[in-house]
Amino acid sequence: MEIGVGLPGHVTGLEERTLVTWARRAEERGFASLTASDRLAWSTPEPLITLAAAAGATERIRLVTSVLLAPLHTNPALFAKAAATLDRIAGAGRLHLGLAPGAREDDYQASHLDFSTRGRALDTLVERVTAIWRGEEEVGPAPATPAGPPLWFGGTSQATLRRIASHGTGWIAGTGGDINEFTTFATRLHSHWKEAGRQGRPRTRATAMFALGGHAHQSLTRAVNDYYAFAGPDYVRTVIDTAATTADMIHTTVTTHETAGLDELVFVGNHTDPKQIDLLADILGDKLT
User: Fold this and answer.
1) Which fold has domain 2-287?
2) Following DSSP, what letter does each residue of the chain receive, concatenated?
3) pLDDT greater than 80 at residue 289
4) Distance of alpha carbon 75 from alpha carbon 113, whole angstroms
5) Rounded Cα distance, 46 and 87, in Å
6) What's the N-to-C CA distance of the chain in angstroms?
7) Segment 92-100 mean pLDDT
8) What's the rounded mean pLDDT across residues 255-275?
């Protein structure tokens, strides 16, 4: 199982220039990937621009949107161009696009878009963007990765299964999910993959919240309460309870997901200090590449 690190873009008070330091340090310490999240009606930095900055500061680490609210990009040709440009800046194979409709209605209100049709909008965008990347339209530049960056999809709906089986490389599981629910959905995904005639197997990636060092639990609790308040107190408590704030909790989280057959686990920062990278890497030791 590979291990990545997620940028603390959701944490209030973030100084965006520190994200470049996060990217450099994550690569230096051997993390497999660097992820950027997406929200419109929040202070989260725009993920494609964030990963472009990270691409310029690194050479090897995989760059992942986890996840991009793709239906907000209402011009598929422009989105295809932007993603292809980032793919070329990063170099073939480094950019992975995690896409999802999202669960926050305020992101759509801010865009004057219909929240109820976001799933259909995502499907339409994916069809057009992948056609452009295959060279079926006069939109450039072409991506560095043949046929475009790998697509990953978030969610647990029947539509998510369909999207992954038809267009995806794999599934990005949500934060704070029960490991039994993960394995159940992963089993369904493998069945849909085979029924669609796909070769190989779908990949799986999950995220876990973390904060380490002095006042770790307070930092994490504050960040999670702020960001996930919309989902209600029960979900907030679940995310906090499944997060890691000690070395033992980091090791337990790794073991649990590795045993479940996960391909990649991403620890998402809940403190803005780049030293969080070193604290995490020191705990993980030879688990990193």
Assistant:
1) TIM Barrel (3.20.20)
2) -EEEEE--TTSTT--TTHHHHHHHHHHHTT-SEEEE---SSSSPPPHHHHHHHHHHH-SSSEEEEEEEEGGG---HHHHHHHHHHHHHHH-TT-EEEEEE--S-HHHHHHHT--GGGHHHHHHHHHHHHHHHHTT-SS--PPPSSTTSSPEEEE--SHHHHHHHHHH-SEEEPPTT--HHHHHHHHHHHHHHHHHTT-SS--EEEEEEEE--STTHHHHHHHHHHHHHGGG-HHHHHHHHHHSB-SHHHHHHHHHHHHHTT-SEEEEEESS--THHHHHHHHHHGGG--
3) no
4) 13
5) 16
6) 10
7) 99
8) 97
Beta strands, E only, the chain: 2-6, 33-36, 62-69, 95-100, 151-154, 170-172, 203-210, 264-269
